[in-house]
Amino acid sequence: MVEVRNLRYKYPGSKDQVLHGLDFSIPQGEIFGFLGPSGAGKSTAQKILIGILKQYEGKVTVLGREVRETKPDYYEKIGVAFEFPNFYGRFTAMENLSLFRSLYQGTTSKPEELLDRVGLAKYAHTKVDNFSKSMKMRLNLCRALLNQPEILFLDEPTSGLDPVNARLVKEMIIQMKTAGKTVLITTHNMQAAEDICDRIAFIVDGRIVLIDSPRQLKVEHGKRRVRVEYRKNEQIHQEYYELEGLGTNQEFVQLLGRERIETLHTEEATLEDIFIKATGRKLE
Amino acid sequence: MIPALRLLRSDLRLVRRDAMLFFYLIAPLLLISAVWFGVPAVNDVLISYFAFDLSEYYGLITGASLLLVSLILGCMCGFMMLDERDEYLIQYYAVTPLSRRGYLVCRLAAAVVLSVIYDAVLLLCAAPAPISIAQLFYLLPMAALEAPFIALFLVAYAANKVEGLALTKGAGLFVAVPAAAWFIGSPLKYGFAIFPAYWVYELLKLGHGGQPWRALLLMLAGTGVHMLAVYVLLRRFLRRQD
């Protein structure tokens, strides 16, 4: 669905290379996450994939077409939601969606159905100027889905959303995957990436430093042990046990039987730990 | 072009809801009315009380009115584009089948079409001195290109709508300064030839009395200067977008 080989880019008039030879591919039906700090090059990579920046070096094919050679009909097949929702504030949600819907010639979804899916049906005739950030973000997702795209590019899709709406959006993205669509997400939100992405790529200074499934990364970079927390004499105690031979570890088995266990966790790494370990930098 | 036509339909709704844009849309009608009814009345008064015949300057008044109409429509189009850039809507149109090129064509074409309509009404109905059909066809291409020139000037040099409002004063100079050439003889007046509006005044100063080749040359040169100015500003605007 997406093939990127040795992608290099520098902005016109700039001497500095922003992307230094990215290589990755995204098969159909995958949710792929680009993670990295601000200025790492993830937005630039996304702009290249959606055909805004065409003066790149290397090979970038989306839906079997080299992106630099695509024509406006390319946008019949892809959906894009930028980080900052961009609408006509004087138009209602329905008027905005109807306007953008009218730009497509292929099959499109009904705006009222999309608004209903994101909980905005009752605000269909409210001017977007009166929308909160969360409502605009959900409307942004509706617009990206209008043309029933094969591939969806989402920039910080859960930014500015409360937990309930963040969950709603994540569920919609997973539904897209279930329907065989491909989704590329750009985010600094590790939790969102972990919750929905099949694979993630950490991008730092224009290079991919790690690429794998969140689970695999967490297991590979974690400690192979469990942490047990229990309460004794009103004090919380912690013990660590190696995963190897855990079932036959008498000390562990006796502890489970003897004490009042409060938590029991494996010690896989968090994505943030992995990122810091791999890059020496923190996500902002 | 179907998406472009649909964008135009929504533009009409947008103009209806934005008081400033709506004013810009009807302001040329007010100007045309003022020229149509006001100029002959003022001339009568000037002749009666001051023995001053304004009709010697009817060409200048027609030119200034024509260019003002285009200036107003260019500002309207420029403000719409600045609004859309401030709201990142141009960025969004670029990732729809309309594309950035389609968006630009749509906006600039709207300015041209509106200018042609208003300018034709002005020249045919309201111009204080009679305008020949040949003059009409010579003046319209230049006057029509003046609107996208002004719109592009605003969006190429203003970072946002507030700066755009300040730049409209500068845009007014593009119309006002070359009018000075009306009162200046050769060769000094050619110093104003870099202003696209200069050629409109020159053509009107020539009148419609028996110099068809000179009129044609002025029209070709003036249209060329306008097209060059539009091209230069368009390139600058496109660079800003990246």
TrEMBL record, chain A:
Protein origin, superkingdom: Bacteria
Keywords: ATP-binding, Nucleotide-binding, Transport
Any matching Pfam family: ABC_tran
One MF term in the entry's GO annotations: ATP binding
PROSITE patterns in the record: ABC_TRANSPORTER_2 (PS50893)
Domain ABC transporter, residue spans: 2-230
InterPro entries linked: AAA+_ATPase, ABC_transporter-like_ATP-bd, ABC_transporter_ATP-binding, P-loop_NTPase
Name assigned to this protein: ABC transporter antibiotic-transport ATP-binding protein
UniProtKB/TrEMBL annotation, chain B:
Statement: the UniProt record of this protein carries the keyword Plastid: no
Entry's transmembrane regions: 21-39, 59-82, 103-131, 137-159, 171-201, 213-234
Keyword Ligase tagged: no
Taxonomic superkingdom: Bacteria
Keywords, alphabetical: Membrane, Transmembrane, Transmembrane helix
Protein name in UniProt: ABC transporter permease
Phylogenetic lineage: Bacteria, Bacillati, Bacillota, Bacilli, Bacillales
